[in-house]
Structure formats: C-alpha cells, structure tokens
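Dear colleague,

Thank you for sharing your sequence with our group. We've completed the structure prediction you requested, and as agreed, I am returning the results in plain text so they can be pasted directly into your records. Please verify that the sequence below matches your submission; if there's any discrepancy, let me know and we will rerun it promptly.
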Amino acid sequence: MRKVAAIQMASGPNVNANLIEAARLITMAVEAGAELVVLPENFAIMGLSEFDKVKIREADGQGPIQDFLSEQAAKHGVWLVGGTVPLAAHDADKVR
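Please find the predicted structure tokens below.
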C-alpha cells in the first residue's frame, strides 16, 4: 500500500522561513514512509496582503520556490505537490 502525507503548516510572510519549515515537514513525512507528499495552498507565503504574492511571483519553470520543490522531490525520491506557487501573469499587479 502506498503512503500519502498531507502536510499542515502555518505559513507567514517570510518565504525562506516557510521553505525551511516545509523541508523539515517533508523530511518527517518521508521518514514515516510517504511516497506522495502534499503541501498546503500558499505554503511558501501567506502574506499580509495579496500584493505580497505579486512581489515574489516567479516565471514558469524558474524561481526559488519551484527550485525548492524540484530539489526536495529529487532529494527524497518522492512525488511532491506544492500547493500554490505565485506565478507571473500578464498584468504586473497579478499572479496566477
């Protein structure tokens, strides 16, 4: 039987701190036998306003949040679902 881990976390406005906590929780899930790890929506940032997400938005396929997800999946040999990643939109004041 395959194990799935659904991670809960209380993200804040500090992306680096959130990624450090996500990495710790991913490691715990893998150590418990998870092969699929699912992070919550907005795991990387829960800003004080929607504009906080705009400030850290990433281009498709590149950026520190996407790199983090790729590196963690490869490091642990698991499938990793990254909740929401703020991606650049055509409008400068929006994310998708």
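Summary note from our side: Helices lie at 15-31, 50-55, 64-76.

Kind regards,
the structure core
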